[in-house]
Design goal:
14 strands, Rossmann fold, alpha/beta, eight-stranded mixed beta sheet
Length: 396
Amino acid sequence: MKILIIVDDYMPSSIKVAAKMMHELALEFTAKGHEITILTPAPSLSKNIDIQYIDGIKVLLFKSGNLKNISKIKRAINESLLSFFAWKATGSYFKSNPHDAIVYYSPTIFWGNIVGKLKKLWHVKSYLVLRDIFPQWTVDNGLMKKGTPIYLYFKFFEQINYKKADHIGIMSPLYLNFLKATRKDAYKFEVLNNWTKINPLKTPSDYYRKQLNLEDKIVFFYGGNIGHAQDMQNLIRLAKRLKENAVAHFLFVGTGDEVSLILSEIEAHQLNNITYLPSVDQETYFNMLSEFDIGLFSLHPGHKTHNFPGKLLGYMELSKPILGSVNPGNDLKELVNTCNAGYVFDNGEDEDLYQAALLLIESETLRNKIGMNARELLVSHFSVEQACSLILNRLN
């Protein structure tokens, strides 16, 4: 079967978990005998279309507007035009190169139009990997008002995105129950966990510990988007509580609209127990993560939908105990805590988060035990083989 995968960011330059996940899915499809093409934007491309091969996977690049490190308005405009630019660059190619199925990833919400064109052209099924309930989460967090023109604009394209999918994979059983009670097309939705290719564990070096002068520290590592949806103030509060702890140190690696918050808090409160680094490539990220002690995450308490941060896959793969906060009702909390893969609390339960951090700081044995449980949870619930099989069953 020839499968087209559509994603807004891809390997090898991408630092996003989505790029890694979709590349690993493509490799797994290939291992099962299928022929894969990736369709992805490349703002820096000097021509409309280019074909490259990455690990044997055909990657079809099309020129688009910039999607990173620009204002929200410009990003919204450029994302809105993704389907237009994709079809303009690749329409003639796809007319003479039909595929048997389409898998597409959201965010972004703007793939619906090109998916619709290709489905009409090829008469095939499509599967939407839905990882972000936008624009709803912005309403929940007070960033956008329901019913405003911009909300209705985004909602229009979100519904096109859903309409063009035959099947939609979401991350949360509880959210699936909500959809079954509220949507006429709930039959389309099912739980599709995040996934990763699970590699053998390697003995970490101490290169980054030495580079960052953290050789005698217990390091809480946070990697990924540093934005409003993550509520970084929550993690800053924990760092403040541990400011006088001689061994506790926080390392934040990533980009986003709350980087300035971290930097200002470091300066205002002289938080010498925090180090911030900008985003790094995938290989550097995982080498860095392998050396440190505890995987840290946070979700904004205003979220009403259930989210599984992709960064947790890396923490689990490298046997790091998980420590973090979620929005109330998020079923991730029960999953991690029940499997003893870490400590997860509702955002705002600061004392519980602090006490759990102390437990992990004080016991290497506990960190190792919980880290091994985290890896076992990954193997049992989040392998790329499981995701691949589920998607193929639907497309067939």
